[in-house]
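In this section we walk through a basic example: taking a raw amino acid sequence and producing a predicted 3D structure, encoded as discrete structure tokens. The instruction is simple. Fold the sequence below.
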Amino acid sequence: MVFSNAVFLFLFLPITLAVYYSPLAKSIRAKNLWLLAVSLGFYAWGEPVYIVLMIASIAVNFFLALLAEKCPKSPRGRLIVALSCVYNLGVLFVFKYLSWILRDMLGKTDTPFSHLALPIGISFYTFQSLSYVIDVYRGGEKAQHNILDAGLYIAFFPQLIAGPIVRYGTISRQLLFREHSAKKFAEGVRRFIIGLSKKLLIANTVAPIVFQAFNASREGNCSVLFAWLGVFSFMLQIYFDFSGYSDMAIGLGKMFGFEFLENFNYPYLSQSIGEYWRRWHISLGQWFTDYLFTPVSETLGKKVRKSLKGKIGGKNALKAEYIASIFVVWVATGIWHGANWNFVAWGMMNFVFIVTETLFARKSKPSASGAVFRVVRFWFLKMLIDTMFQSASFSSALSYYADMFHLSHNALLDDTALYFLGQYKAFLLIGFVFCFPVAEMFFAKLSAKSSCAEKVCTAAKTVLYALLFALCICYAVGGGYNPFIYFNF
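The resulting token sequence is shown next.
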């Protein structure tokens, strides 16, 4: 089940809200029990077999966290964390990477493990469960002593499938004490409509361009213009698809009284790839920083400094330590996103660009023209990176690069490119404009003029939300099944 289809919008969500706010679920415990039940049902709707895997994840991590709480920062505690890593990463390995290794590396296609279906959202709820046990071991959080509340934290349906990756400390108190108000509910509805509009009105609309361009490249008849148009469209598609899902998750959380942290901060405003990753999928970036980069930097850094002691200067040793640590992080990030060599290569591209930017960054006086140039440069580099991400394989990515730079001797432009550009130019322009905070700036300036202008602004927003929701309903009813891109990860 996805947030953007009619079953969710007209059946699942209304029933869930109706029971949640009814006298049947008056206490917070009853509300939590209901949310856990519908969350498991939500997951079982698309993954009836793998609901067992979800329940096992809840049970295992619940008991491991209880054990870790009794021996924080101790050898026994480290053993418990190791068991959590073995279980969570082991499950992730079996279902996400074992078939890749058997098929593509060992050539074994006839074993039962060669064609395992990937449980939806396993990368997200695995990382979330793992962080919970580690945080309890570190002493930063107290373990949850009610398995139903722990289950709700891991399986809560708004962020279950594609994040954001919610840290336990963010909502531990909210599991028992959270505010329910008409104002907060209305904020959640508005945020949900924004996310739904991103998904249905922009991401889904430009998706055919992406499909046709990459398909044309595989068939060997993609023009240069169509290749660039395809990857530009993919930049818009993946941003509005994924940030739209995060907006809907945050909005749904508010409807039930929860506050989730932001997961996107206008990433296409970035002036470098490093800045982009501080603005994009923020919860994943923080996860890798806290649970991989920092520990690796502390342990690997000592070894690097020891091996280089007396050979190079202190600053160069720190650079070597940074490069080694960031390399490990980006190998892991690439593999996390998918079991394929193109994702490994995608991780290495990010690694190279970030290290280059960090080591060779020049300090210059801030200027508007310089900022614009850096944003344009970022978009160019991002399109190169996204080509590797979207391609079906590493070889397909190389072929697409050849099309982009006229190395395959294809046409500079063709009728297909002109057709898609003509048919979709309005959506492409709208998508590009709303990659930036133009709407927020417009309404902020309008509201600041006077109290009357503020009231007009509020009324205009209400009408706008109603129109957007009506449009989304038309798209949801008339459109086909179109899952979120990050469901694959």
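Looking at the output, two observations stand out. The chain has 19 helices and no strands. The chain has a mean pLDDT of 88. In the next section we compare this with other chains.
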